[in-house]
Amino acid sequence: MRQIIHGxxxxxxxxxxxxxxxxxxxxxxxxxxxxxxxxxxxxECRNKTKLKYPSLNTRQVSDAVMQAQGLYSRVxxxxxxxxxxxxxxxxxxKEISNQEWKDLRDRQIYARGDKTKRGNPNxxxxxxxxxxxxxxxxxxxxxxxxxxxxxxxxEKRLLLYLVWGMLIMFG
Length: 171
Prior knowledge:
The two termini are 25 Å apart. This protein has 171 residues and is α+β, with helices and mostly antiparallel strands. The chain has one domain. It contains six helices and six strands, in the order E-H-H-H-H-H-E-E-E-E-H-E. The model has no long low-confidence stretch (mean pLDDT 87). A hairpin with a 2-residue loop joins strand 4 (131-139) and strand 5. A four-stranded antiparallel sheet has the order 1-5-4-3. Strands 2-6 form a two-stranded antiparallel ribbon. The longest helix is centred in the N-terminal third of the chain and has 24 residues, at 15-38.
């Protein structure tokens, strides 16, 4: 069952997180193109993606490749516009800037959970004396914690679903 819980992150500096999201999104697009154009297996695609994106850890690369493989299995050889066709049209008409286009295109990251690792190793929810934080892996064994605001009505539900994957969308 899919649960959607909205929250907000607070911090004075999101540079590390923005770079991670940009790298993850780029790896996702790269992997999709490898499935579509090169017809690679999962392992071959993961290896090529890891070489191209050394800033991502192995699990982050695997998550990006897994998402790309899922998208490829749904669309096969149809044309895919990352960021949306309407937004691409706005870019062509100069209604949005190139940076706005990139912000719309690079605004999510996915991390799957693992019961054997007590939840999600790349995006871990922490409860510190009733305050929630997201501890996000932003490099090899480099972590950043962001204060997380969750409305009170979602707190119990959030604690129930810590083990499974998280898709974080920005914007």
